[in-house]
Each structure stands twice: as structure tokens, then as C-alpha cells.
Amino acid sequence: MKTIQKLFLIFLMFCSLPSLGQQATEVKVSGKVLDNTTQQPLEYAGVTLLSLTGNKILKTTVTDKKGEFTLVTNPGQYHLKIEFISYKPTLLENKQIKEDTNLGNIGLQENVKLLKSVNVIGEKSTVELNLDKKVFNVGKDLISKGGSANDILNNVPSVNVDANGGVSLRGNGSVRVLINGKPSMLTANNGLEQIPASNIEKVEVITNPSARYEAQGGGGIINIILKKNTIGGLNGSVQAGLGDPVNYHGNLNLSYKTEKFNLFSNVGGRSRDFYASEKRFQTTTKNGLTNILNQQNKQRRNDDTYNIYVGGDYYINPKNTLTGSFYHSTLFNRDTTNFGYSYYNGGNTLDSAVTRFENYREPQRYNQLELNYVKTFDNKDQKWTTNLQYDFWNDDENQDISQAKNFPLPKMISRLTSRNIESSDDIYIQSDFVTAFSKDSRFEAGIRTDLRAIRSDYWAKADEVLLAKYNNKLKYDENLYSAYMQYGNKINKFSYLLGLRAELSHIGISDRAGTFDQDKKYLNLFPTVHLTYKLPESAEFQLSYSRRINRPQFWQLNPFSGLSDIRNLTVGNPDLDPTYTNSFEFSMIKRLGKLNINPSIYYKHTTNYFQFVIEQTPDGYFVSTPVNLDFEDRYGFELSSSYNPFGWWRLSWDFNYYKFKQQGAYDGKNYGAKDQTWFTRIGSKMKFPKNLSIESSLNYIGKKQDIQSINKAQYRADIAVSKDLFKDKMSFTLGVINVFDSMVDKRVTNTDTYYLESESRRFGRLVSATIVYRFNRKKDDKDRLPDE
Q1: Which of 108, 143, 159 is the last residue of a domain?
Q2: Domain containing 367: what range?
Q3: CATH of residue 49
Q4: pLDDT for 678-715, tens place per residue?
Q5: Residues 431, 447: contact at Cβ < 8 Å?
Q6: Which residues pair with 634 in a beta bridge?
Q7: Angle CA 235–252–123, to nearest 5
Q8: End residue of a domain, out of 62, 80, 108
Q9: SS3 687
Q10: Residue 711 domain-assigned?
Q11: CA 54, 63, 142, 176: dihedral to nearest 10 degrees?
């Protein structure tokens, strides 16, 4: 812990600098900066306190989201200068400051001459920082246009999506992904590929959630917010594009608002091809003999997706609103995979060669019905919301696999067919009440029920003969009941939010053959604490704690797996228990003129931690299974920052470094790992005359070792160019993802009896072109979000 202690002390010394030298006689100068024409607040406007002689800079700060600022200084007479990109600077001269002074509203006038050459009028900040979450606004993200939710997440700081669609936060895979603040089956089994990037308004990253959020997700919560338009009258946009490899996509967004109704809709479709590949090299030693296997897999994956999202608000009266919506997604997944196996004996001489060809088909349909009621009161800080959501989905997985021996003599070995029909019914009910006892206090309470029933009917045949081992039906039921309350208040510069959540879990999993029948119930309490101390000159300290749970997901419990590659299987563990995490975080938010920084130090202690273990079968094949280990300790440092060196250029840098230790035993064997790693993302966005924009990013993930394997480092570079046409009614974007074709997942596992080395590519270089046309809607028009 010495390293983290040193970081913590340096962090405290750095953060305390703004307050050094303050005296008891200091006074506050405050005000609010607005656009002189629209009266809209201007965030990140620069405010400078100058001396009367020589205009020496004494103090600087920037405005917050409300356009407000506060400076602390000694009593005296000063000049005050206010500046903002593409606005004329304003100088308030000879201001006599004897006591706390509020200068009121300060209007800035647009610099028309400047606007003719550089169009950068008050663009919304890409990142917003709140008490218990970070919000990433992705509406202007050029790189992800024409892509999916996975492409969006891969450009969000602290978040990574691996080759199999697995999402991690700060390198931690036990993260909960929500849609509009609620659970969804679209977040499982790489279902996020079905959500078009054009449907997403913003992404919330919640590293240490408060009690209002479900306790699931030891690594935190990622909340994807979908768009709901709210501009008056009839308006909308049309988007279309194409790419290489095949990426045809189209999207129609319409909304119509009157005094009593607000109707919104989004209809889209997409057809994409992916070309993936994998190389595996393994040596096994048995009875003193060594055998070698060289394996090469090549896959072509085709996904056709259709989405429709329709809904509306009914304003019953000024204090009662009813909202209903329906979301449907259909995915047709068609894959073909060639497997090639070359076996060598100890003398490195080819012994045999086998090929295996898989034809995979999977139609998947997802439906979601939602009804939401919001009631407000005379007290503007009081609100009651109730939400009902029903999800029902099904998919039909079909495999047709043929295997042949090519060497030493050609021979057809077998034909394998399988089918897995899965379906789920999910009901979600939540009701929350918020009120305020005073100007700065806030009380919140709510109840919630999650009911999920998944059924999986599976069979497999070898040469038309039913395999009894794989003829089974899985039944999974997950019933969660929870309640919470939290209270927050503000005392001068100090704010706090204290919460407690209780969750009752009842999870049952069984099969038709009776090989297992697990039924588990547990009641848990989850306290949360969030403390904030606000310093002068736009600086805040945040200290938070939360207790979290990570319940195994259905796919981690399901012991039936696809038979694509029987030599390398991944199967679930029906007896997997939940993990529990105590999470601590200390962070700061600081604005230094054009530079915004958010450093954080965090620590997580997880008990009953689960990790995948690779075991070798008597046939020399390998099976990967999740098991419970004793614990994991993880601590690290994260820095999120943005810098505007010029009005037309925005830079961002995100860096995360962490250490971890994993320890436990399974099946009589001890497993453990101790390592450190880091990852970073550098982003750039430049806006030039004639409405031309260029956005680029570079992502790097360092090498990491777990309990059995070493994951090699990897990096990815993306770039996009955008041009606005016809007075911003039309935009054209050209983007390239994975410019250098460098997204390669390399892993090495080395034990006393075998050595495994793999190299896999989920996709290569992706090029896409997208065009958007808007009618009765401006490029910067805001969308209504579920909580508004």
C-alpha cells in the first residue's frame, strides 16, 4: 500500500494549493455570464481579476453549467475581465469590493466578425461531472457515426469493449450496463451491437453509485441514455450511410409536439459484415511425450438489424405526465467459420490435419413496453415517479458443423447439428419519491421489483443421432426485491449524501435431466456515502463509499455451450455464488482556465471473487469455467482531463493505472495473480472554417496477467472528418475505425503440462460514410431525456 499512500499524499498537497495563503478578511465576488441575445448561460467562460495598475492577473476562474462563477480575494479595487470563445470580451473597470459582492447577470455579445471565420458557438461540453457520476455527451461524436453502442462505449473514457463484446470499466468486467437507467437483455450476449449509435444521446459512467441505483455491478454502472425528441411542431432527421466492409445503415427520427402531446419515433436498419480470425498454438505433455497443435480459424459474420422505437408523452395537466413507449429490435445473425487443426508429434512432424466448417444461423427478437408516470407538486423540489417495463425476447441458435480429416488420408469424420431456443420474460417496476425539507436538503426513497424468467431448450445430434448429454432444458428464475432511502444536505461549502439500500434476491436454476437444482436466497444491505467539499476558484473534493454485489449472469451459470470448437469450450457454472465489493474513491474536480482536470484515487476489495479457470480434459481438450475464488484487491489512480488551447481545438486525455491481487483455491488447486497495468485514451477535435471538423483518438491498453494467462498490450487509432452543408441542415461524415488494423487480442497460458498461445481479431479496419439531413431541427437542438 506504500505506492497508493504516496499518491494520496501528493494528491492532497496538489489539491490544497488553491487554499494556501487565504486570510479571514477575504471576500467573494460572484456573478452569472449570459449570452446577451438569447440569455442562455455560458459554461466555461473565463473570468479574470486584474490589478488597477499594469492589469496584472490576480485570480482566474471559469463559469459552471449555470454560467455562474465565484472568486475569493482581499477587499480592494479591481478590474474584472470576462471572455468566451467567439464573443467580444467585457471589461468591468474600477470595481470597489469591500464585502461579498454579487455582480448579477453579465451579458456577452457575439463577435460577428469572428463567427464568419470560425463557427464554434457555445458547443456543449463533451463531459459533465456530477456528485456520483460522469456524463459523456456523445451526440457530436463523429467517430461512432454509423456504428453501434459498442462503438460509442469504446470512445468513452475508462470504458473498454473486448473482442467478444464484453464491457469493462477501469479494467473491471463486473460492470452493470443499463438502458435509460433500467436493466435490459440487450446488454447481454453482445446485444449492444443491436443499438445504433444514432439512437444514443449520452452515456453515464457511475464508478461509485449512490443508493438510488441498484447494487448490482461491483465495477460500477454504465447507463446508456436513448434519445427522445421534444422540439415543438413536426421535426426530424434522416441518416444514411455505407462502409467497407459492408455496413449499410439508415435511420429516420421524427417527433411532433403540441400543447397536450409529444410524440417521438425512431426507425432504423443496418446490415454489417465482420471478418474475424484467430490463431492458436498449443503444446501438451503427457507421459513424457509432447504434442503440438497449430490452429487457424477464419470467420465471416453478417448481422442484419432492424429497430423501431415509438412513444409519446401525454400532459394530463401541468403537474401530471404519462409516457408510453415501445421498442423492438430484430437481429438476423448469419456466420460461417472455417476451423483448421494441424497436429504435430514430438519431432515436429505433421501427424494429422483436420478441418471443421460451421454454418451458424440465429434470428433474435427483442421487445420492450414501458409506461412511466410523473407527478410534480407546488414544491418544485418534490416529485413522484413510477415506472413499469415489460421485456420479452427470444432467439433461435442453429449450428450445422461438418468435420473431415485431410491428412494422412482424406476422410469424412462426422456431421454435428444443434439447436438452442432461448426466451425470456422480464418485468421491472419502480417507484421513487423525492422531496426537500429546506433549500439545500434532499430526501429520496423508492421501491423496486425485478422479475426475470429465462428458458433454454437445447439439443444436439451427431450424424442424425441424438446426443443424450446435450438433450436438456434449462430453467432460470431471478426475482429481486429492493427498497432504498437517502438524505442529502449542504452546509456552507460541505455537501453530503447518505443512503441505504436493501435487496432480497431469490435465484433458481435447474435442468430437465435433474443433473443440478440450485435455489439461493439472500438478503443484503448496501450503504452508500458521498461527501463533497467545494473550494474557491472552481475546485471540488469528493469522497465516496459504496457496497456492491455482482450476481452471476445467466450465461455464466449456463453449463451448455455451443459446440463450434469442441477443443476449446467455455461453459457456465450453475453453483456460482455472488461476489461482494467494498468500493472507496477520492477525487477532485478542478478548472484551471482552459484546462479541466478530474483526478481520482480508488480502492476496491471484493470477496468471493469469480474468475474463469482453464482445465484440460483427458482427451487433451480445454474447458474454461467461471469459479469463485477468495478475494481480489484493486487500487489505482485515474485522471480525466480536457484542454482548449485555442477556440477551434479541444484536446482530452484520460489515464488509468491500477494494481490488483487475486487469490483463491478451486478443485484442490491454488490460484493467484498479482500485477499492475494501465490504459489511456487521447482525443482531439478541431473545428475549421466552412463548418469542417476533424476528430481523432488513440486508445492503448497495457499488458495484464490474471490467475493463469498473460494478455498482451494492444492499441487502436480512429479518425473522422465531418462537413456541415446547407446552413447546418445536412452533415456528411467520413470515419475510419482501427486505422492501423491493430486491435488484436493476444494471450499466453503456460503451465507444467501445457502451453497455449492465441491471437484473435474481432474485426479489421472499418471505413464508413454517413450523411444526415434535418428538417425543422437545428444541429445543436437538445433531446429530452427520461428524467426530464
Answers
A1: 108
A2: 233-775
A3: 2.60.40.1120
A4: 999 999 999 888 888 999 999 999 999 999 999 999 99
A5: yes
A6: 604, 660
A7: 60
A8: 108
A9: strand
A10: yes
A11: 140
